[in-house]
# Entry
Amino acid sequence: MAGEFDTLLCIMNRVQFLKNALFVEGGLVVLGAGLAFFTGLWDEIRIEWTSMAVLAGVSWTIPLLLVYGVIDRFPVGGLRDVQDFLWNTFGPILRQMRWYDILLISILAGWGEELVFRGVLQTQVEHWGWPQPAVWLTTNLIFGLMHAVTPWYVVLAAIAGCYFSFLLDVTGERNLLVPIIVHALYDFVVLMYIARCVGRTPQPSTESNHQTIQVDDDANGNS
# Structure
């Protein structure tokens, strides 16, 4: 599945990728709104522009970006697969994007994914009377599986989802705008960073490193 997804990304151009991304992320916004309405949760999902929510959203994005910076700088174990996907598979597509393409995708991802998972799914599971750890684990395990690019990507997405679940109540307002801002702003900064840097500082894949070592050994007469 991951290999097919990588191949699909490689053959896409900017317009094709943008259409697919807008269809998926925009579809999540519609899906989330529809689910909220038909499950009767619409009145419980608060998305309100307050100064506290905006400040919290911007502030709580910083720790997430710092974590990404550490992972990107020191990719160990399975994190190399995540870095390889972001730089070598996703990166060339991102490099074709305009900044406003990435901004639009990030905003839709923040609104759509948070509305579906933290707004509808988490609220619905809470109605079942489950303890908070079980609510977060269930909601964000599904969230992680929806990002099944590599096994470690699933893990990282699930952990990020738990962070977003925490942010839902961090201001005491139960305002979904906080995780929406953090999600969208984080996506925009990271995707812009990769899009701008991938052409100048491409990250070699694990397979490429292995092939390079073999070539060097053959050139030195080693086998």
